[in-house]
Structures are given as C-alpha cells and as structure tokens.
Amino acid sequence: MKRFKNILFVADAELKGGDALDRAVILAENNQAHLTVVSIIEDLPTRGSEEIQGISMSELHDAIIDKHQLQLEGLLSSISTKIQISSKVLSGVTFLALIREVLSKKIDLLIKTVQEEELMEKLFGSSDMHLLRKCPCPVWLIKSSRQGHYKKIMAAIDFDPFNNKPEEDALNRRILQMSAALALSDFSELHIIHVWHAYGESSMRSGLAYQPAAYVDAYVDRIRTNHQHSLESLLADTLDQGGRDAKDYLKPKIHLVKGFARDRIPEIVKEEKIDLIMMGTVGRTGIPGLLMGNTAETVLNRIDCSVLAVKPEGFITPVRLEE
Fold it and tell me: pLDDT band for position 47 (50/70/90)?
C-alpha cells in the first residue's frame, strides 16, 4: 500500500497509543512514510495578560505544551521502528488545527481515534464531521474499541452509468485501490458495494404515471444491467492493476443493491459486520469544500464501524493557513 508519504496520527486525550497507533506505525513502515504524532490543547485565552498565582496565561499555556510534548516523546520512545516518527503539540480548535497542519506539512493521510458514540448520533456536527467535510486528505476514523486486524473491509462505489464523470471515476478507482491494498495487508475479506435505483419506478407502478408491469420490469432490468456492466468494467480495470495473484486472493464479495444508498449501505454494513468502510465524501449532490454529499453524511450518521473517507482529486478546503 505504498501511496502515503506523510501520515498524521492524532493521539487521544489520554495520550495513549494502543491499537490505532500500532496500525499507523505499521502503515508508515509499509509505505516508508514519515509519521507525525500530535496532541491538541486549547488555544491561549484572549485574556492573556491575566495572572493566576503569579503565572501569566502565556506561561501556563507554554507549560501545558511542554507537558504534552514530554508525554508524546515518552509514548514514542516505547515504539520500536526504523521509520522516522516526530511529535508535535497543536493548539486551537481541533479540526482547524489539524487541517492547517495537513496543509502546512503536506499530509496525505490523517488517522484519528473516535469514541463509540461519535461514530453514531453525535458524529454529525462534531469536530470529526468537520474533518470529513473539509480536510483535503483522506481521513481515517478508527473506533476506540477496534483491536487487531480488520476482518471485513467495504469499499462503497458511487457512479451514474448514464452520466459518467472523470472525477467520479478517478475517485472510485482510488477507493478501490486503497481498499484492495489494505485488505491484502490486513488479510481481510473485501466487500464492494454499489447501490442503484430506477428513477420513477414507484410512480409508474402506483398510478401517478402508470405503465404496464411488463414495461416497468423491463425498464428496471435495463437500469440494473447498465449499473452491473459499469461496475464490472470498473472492477476489472482497477483490480487487474494489482496483478492476478492479488485479484485471485481477494475474490471480493460484490453487493449490487437496489434501493437508496442512505438506507442500504448501513443495512449491509450491519448485516455483514463490516469493520471498516471506505467511501468518498463529496458526492454528486455535494458542494465541494463546504459540505459532503447528502447521502454520505446520512450514511456516516447511521453506521457503527471505522471509516476511511476519501476526497476527489482537486478538492479545495475552505480552511486557510493563518497569516
């Protein structure tokens, strides 16, 4: 999986490593990448001139930074590896500090652990959701309870066979390549899901725009066939690049599912007990730079597994480096 050169790992509040940090180290080793481990503290209050028992706010802030830096260095001293690992303490609003670090250091993967509830109802609107929306590099949110290798990895592929766009095709290929590489390195079962629906089917069957059942059935079958052929072509082109041995080993389980992605993807994730889902976060209905696709946000708020979210090439974050 040699595609990352500069990886950023966000330590949790307790500054403990655990399985997530081990995974980040292994990934960096496999990619011969540089790994930076950071912790984040609150920014210096605006009332910086105020003193507490003779210590200014600025001195207190510096002391907190020094303490966190020592803790990070102690954490990294226990890691045995040949790769270069550095540490840094960031201050400010979490998602802003992280995105600015991504921009300034040209980070190409951000890894962060999240608590269980953050992957469900509380994810929407949280700092992690801001990262998923605005961080220009892939964001890997790992469940805090996640231990050991991933048994099942899912790649969610989104496309319109009747309106194929180069940027969507490139994003789908990137998701497939990354998921396949990770499944190989983790000895995981790879699942690939694409959800489709036939526009207007319910209206044609219900009487609002009634058509004979045979006509509607044939129409729906043509739509399904187009999606199936497009998916098969995409998989053949992308997975063949990894070599026949890799493709034969993976033997991905394909889910060509009728319905709506916001409903069907969470259902399949739960049914198949998926450990990690990899998906694009700027869909056809999204506004690049500001919002994820509506479908992506809905899916992320209804799943309970780790997430690796990927942006399309050319995505521009609305966050800017401080002057």
Answer: low
